[in-house]
Specification:
Oligomer: single chain
Order of helices and strands: EHEHEHHEHEHEHEHEHEHEEHH
Bound molecules: 6-O-phosphono-beta-D-fructofuranose
Number of helices: 12
Structural class: alpha/beta
Distance between the termini: 59 Å
Amino acid sequence: MRIGVLTGGGDCPGLNAVIRAVVRKGVDTYGHEFVGFRDGWRGPLEGNTMTLGIKEVRGILPRGGTILGSSRTNPFKIEGGVEKIKNNLTELGVDALVAIGGEDTLGVATKLDELGVKVVGVPKTIDNDLGATDYTFGFDTAVNIAMEAIDRLHTTAESHHRTLVVEVMGRHAGWIALHAGIAGGANVILLPEKQFDVEQVAAYVEKRFQHQYAPIVVVAEGAQPLDGQMVLHNQELDAFGHVRLGGIGQWLAEQLEAKTGKEARTVVLGHIQRGGTPTAADRVLATRFGLQAIDAIHEGDFGKMMALRGTDIVRVPLIEGTRELKTVPVERYTEVETFFGS
Ligand code: F6P
C-alpha cells in the first residue's frame, strides 16, 4: 500500500514520534510505502508532498514540532477542496491516510471517511481535552514545562515578596492549569470551567502572605472572572480568523496588586509549552498510537481513531473522537480548591 501521513492543527511534542512509529513499522514489518503531506490538510489539497521513508524518520523521536509541518487548513471551508483532495490522492496513488491532529484535523478526517477516503486518526493536543481518549500526548510535556516554570517562580516571588500570576494554555479546558498547578504547588488555580471571584482570589493571596510565603496563581488563558467583574478580555480574531486569547494573567495581576497592596508580576508561558522535546511518557504514548495506527491501516480497519483507555490503546470510530470536549469535572477541581491560599 502507499500511505499518506499528515499532521494538522497546533503542533505538539510527540508528533514526530508518531510519524516515526508509523513509518518504521509500516516499512519494516508490512512493506508499505509512504508519502508525507506537508502542512496538514493543505498538503493533500495542493498536492504538496515530501519523501517519507526510514531515512527521513531517523533521529526524530526526541524532536519537538513536526517534520511534516502543520496548518489549520480545512478543505471543507474551501470551494472544491474535497474534490481536489480526492483527485490528488488518486493521482499520487495514495491508498490510505494517517491523519494526526486534534478536533479540527480529526473532524475533517471523519467527514472524508464518510465520503469514502480511507483514513485513520491519531489524536494530539497539549490541552488533553479530547473526550474519547484518557490522555493525549503533548499534555505531559506541557505540564512538565509549566511545572518547572512554577518551581522557578516560587523562589523569585519569595525573594521579592510578590504575587506571581502564571498564565498557561487552555482555552476551553483547564487540564494544564490543574495539573501544573498541583505539581508546582500553586496557591490558587483558575480554570475556564469555573468563573472565579477576584475578591476571593485576593483573599487567598493575602492569606498566603500571612504565612510568610509569596503566592503563585496559575490561570488558564480561557479562565474568566464572575460576570460583572471584567468585560470579556481580548477575544478578537487574528488575521487568520483564529480567536486570540491571553491577557487574563495581566489583568488579574493588576487587580491583585490593587486589592492586596503587594507587588504582582505576570508570566505568560505561551508557546513554550508546545515547543521542544517530548517527555518519556509522551514519546511512549505517541509511539504506541503510531504502531496501532499502522496496524489499523494494514488490517483495512479504516474510519478509526486511536485512543488510550486505561493502559490499553484501542480503536474507536473517528466520529467519537471529536464528539465531546473533555473538561475538568467539578469534583476534580473541588478536590484542590479546599487548600487554595494555604
Ligand atoms: O490547542 C492547543 C493550543 O495550544 C491552545 O491551548 C491555545 O489556545 C492554542 O493552541 C494556540 O494556538 P495557536 O497560537 O497556534 O493558534
